[in-house]
Amino acid sequence: MKSIPYYLLIFTLMVNLTGYSQEKSKLKLAMAQMLVEGGEKQKNLNRAVERIEEAAKNKADIILLPEAMDLGWTHSKAKTEAEPIPLGSTFQTLAKAAKMNKIYVCAGIIEKDGDRTFNSAVLINRNGELVLKHRKINELSIAHGLYDQGDRINVCETEFGTIGLLICADANAKDHVLTRSLGYLGADLILLPSSWAVKADHDNKTDPYGSTWTKAFNPVCKEFKLNIASVSNVGKIVDGPWKDWNCIGNSIFVENGGEEMTVLPYGLNADTIVYQDVTLLQRPERGTSWNKYWNSLRNK
Question: Whose CA is closest to 280, among 214, 155, 147, 190?
């Protein structure tokens, strides 16, 4: 192995200190703010497959679907109809659609593992293979009787860059510890299936929804030069502690400087897909991107 000249080491240190981007890649993200009907698994899966097909026709690279998109957040059928990952029919339906349409699929689904039930998210590649799974950690206390708590976070390498998964309130963990941890792990893009709900009498004109999330996303995007996309469902909650609340979309994308933002429509009936161009700045000082860069230097 050849030694690395001292001037190259100095340059590498300067890259690390200045945050200079060595690589850029782009992708087209489909943010599918879809209707989720509580307890209606097959209807929701049919709707998800339609959105996947639509996104592929519009040449999206990744489609992001909401949290608990198969059964709805906190619906009691989680205890009886949750299925394993990747063997269950919910995952297999999404994987088949990903493979047939040659698109990455990220979705929140309810997972059964033995006698435990998890509020989980998956990332499926173009070949229909599971490449990343996350179990929600910072679940609201009202859902603790329904879902077990996850105990780890991770990232995966893709053709676009490094991707991490969280779910909804994970982004509001104290001091943004979970999103920031994904930044330290080298994430270029964080995907968050979500289910954002308000009381039925919420007035978005006098009390605009969304500041909770922008306050959580923007500092992390700025600090780590990464992107965060969070997609919520729409529709009425029909079961659980927040029965009769409305899921209102308002999905959000924040780019890697923390200043540019896309906000999707708000409302009970705001079922839509918005396509977002995403630039990933794969910075060598962060996690796996740095390891990859350093190894390339060593092997020259």
Answer: 190
